[in-house]
Design brief:
Elements (H helix, E strand, L loop, with lengths): L1 H30 L5 H35 L5 H28 L7 H7 L2 H15 L3
The structure holds protoporphyrin IX containing FE.
Protoporphyrin IX containing FE binds next to helix 1, helix 2, helix 3 and helix 5.
Length: 138
């Protein structure tokens, strides 16, 4: 069980590297002026590679979590709320992919200020998940 938990935490940390950094690239993309084509293409390339890298990590974070839950008999209210928060993270991940499509098509509608607030959501969810899984308050 401890090996699976170590793998789980490893996958979670690696996934969060992407969840934290990709929206930061979007802040920069939203600030790029229309005539800076080279800078825009470089940021789009970085965002595309990062999204491709973080997607399997998210899947493995969830699969190792399910393995812990279903394979080792964990349960309790904390886990149900945690899984609901994980669902929020999965929607966020998917939405980041949609935003990337919009940037590639030149159709981004959001300002760099909006993306700065958007960037904070995974931080808040991570804090809530950590309190739930370490303290198991209910
Ligand atoms: C469907 C997805 C997930 C499920 C079913 C799940 C389930 C679990 C379970 C059963 C444990 C073992 C708890 C224990 O040993 O006390 C665990 C540990 C952990 N999970 Fe998840 N998890 C999922 C996704 C995540 C995500 C997305 C995060 C981060 C945001 C996360 C963070 C952690 C951490 C930090 C631990 C170690 C806690 C400790 O050692 O006390 N998990 N997870």
């Amino acid at each position: 069980m401890l090996i699976v938990k170590a793998l789980h935490i490893w996958m979670v940390i690696s996934w969060f590297a992407g969840l934290f950094y990709l929206p930061r690239i979007y802040v920069n993309l939203a600030m790029v002026s229309a005539d800076s084509v080279a800078e825009r293409d470089r940021l789009l390339l970085m965002a595309g590679k990062l999204y491709k890298f973080m997607t399997p990590l998210g899947i493995l974070a969830v699969l190792t979590g399910l393995w812990l839950w279903l394979g080792f008999g964990f349960g309790g209210g904390w886990l149900h709320v945690k899984i609901a928060l994980v669902a929020v993270l999965l929607v966020y991940h998917w939405h980041c992919g949609r935003l990337l499509k919009d940037f590639r098509a030149g159709g981004n509608r959001y300002s760099h200020v909006w993306f700065r607030f958007y960037n904070e959501l995974p931080v808040i969810v991570l804090l809530a998940v950590l309190f739930l899984v370490v303290l198991k308050p209910f």
